[in-house]
Amino acid sequence: YHSIYMSNIREQTMVIHTCDAEFLVNNSLYPLDYNSYGLAFESYPENRYYSLPYWFNRRGYVTVDIHPESASLFNWYQAERRNGYQRCLISKDLDMGGSFENGNDAYFLPRAAKLIAECRPPFMVFLITRTAHVPFELPREHWQLDLRQYGDHPMVRYLQAQRFADGALGDFLTRLDREGLLENTVAIFYGDHEGVHKYYPDQMSDIDLPGDWWQDNKFRTPVIIYEKGQEPEVIDVTGGEIDLLPTILYLWGVDEKEWYNKVIGRNLLNTSRSFALLPDGKIADGETSREPEPGDEWIIEGYRWSGKIVRSDYFGQKIAAEN
């Protein structure tokens, strides 16, 4: 409905999953080998990249990053400010409340919508939501699905949290539309990492839901590109979170000559290559994943070169030379 749905996007995070995903999506670079180099936000907070805010800042947009959490969490605030976001807003800027409110998307998103309405257009806003995150502790009074026969299984808690979060996102879009903020806006939703399958894999055999859709998620994470009037479309090419930035630039009309040598990912709307490098080192394509084979060296090299770019601040040096 008014959307492009990308059905085969795979998670590519390493250890600190939400931060790794934010790094992947904003910069089209792989996260670091955490055991060897740490988290990019913490180990290299002064780096700059050819990031989402870089491209939007150059074209006169207001760029804002909004997290309903503290500035110190994994050092995201310092790193993203340095990387180009003109404003980074945290929980205290949103007047977030107590324990549940602090992770309640239905509490957070109306406050984010108010801040968005105050931005001078054109703007690009990056948001992190929280309700559907592990450990899926949505208070029972907010459960909306009738799954009582399955008890307190993690899948039940996960589905209840997802249903609540979906409703909050729907209300968020409705509010933006009511205030005229969707007339010339594209909203892109991505999942930063797997949910229940990542954190409770050993308990998936303890529940018997209808069908088999829930048994193995295969590192999939949803990506939806929403624009009013968009004809519904499903894109089934296999890709990863690293590919979202070049895909966004393509949709936005930025000439590929400007960015092709500034990203590791590729534009998923105009490619003949269907693959994603997974966190376990395997390569996914469609329903299957496999060990690297002869001829896949260039895929693995993308990961290695990404690490070199981050550790040397290579792109930061190039951006400094531009100025």
Walk me through this protein's architecture.
This protein has helices at residues 17-27, 34-37, 40-43, 52-58, 76-82, 105-117, 154-178, 196-199, 244-252, 256-259, 297-312, 314-322, and strands at residues 3-6, 9-10, 62-66, 87-89, 123-127, 187-190, 223-226, 233-235, 239-240, 276-277, 283-285, 288-290. With 323 residues, it is of the alpha/beta class. The strands form 4 sheets. Strands 6-7-1-8 form a 4-stranded mixed β-sheet, with no helix packed on it. A 3-stranded parallel β-sheet has the order 4-3-5. Strands 10-11-12 form a 3-stranded antiparallel β-sheet, with helices on one face. Helix 6 (105-117) packs parallel to helix 7 (154-178). The longest helix is centred in the middle third of the chain and has 25 residues, at 154-178. The mean pLDDT is 94.
Number of strands: 12
Q: What is the global morphology? A: globular
Order of helices and strands: EEHHHHEHEHEHEHEEEHHEEEHH
- Arrangement of strands in the largest sheet: 6-7-1-8
Helix content: 25-40%
The class by helix and strand makeup works out as: alpha/beta
Low-confidence stretches: none
Supply the key terms.
about 35% helix, alpha/beta, four-stranded mixed β-sheet, about 325 residues, three-stranded parallel β-sheet
Topology of helices and strands:
Elements: E1 3-6, E2 9-10, H1 17-27, H2 34-37, H3 40-43, H4 52-58, E3 62-66, H5 76-82, E4 87-89, H6 105-117, E5 123-127, H7 154-178, E6 187-190, H8 196-199, E7 223-226, E8 233-235, E9 239-240, H9 244-252, H10 256-259, E10 276-277, E11 283-285, E12 288-290, H11 297-312, H12 314-322
Parallel strand pairs: 1-8, 2-9, 3-4, 3-5
Antiparallel strand pairs: 1-7, 6-7, 10-11, 11-12
Helix pairs in contact: 6-7
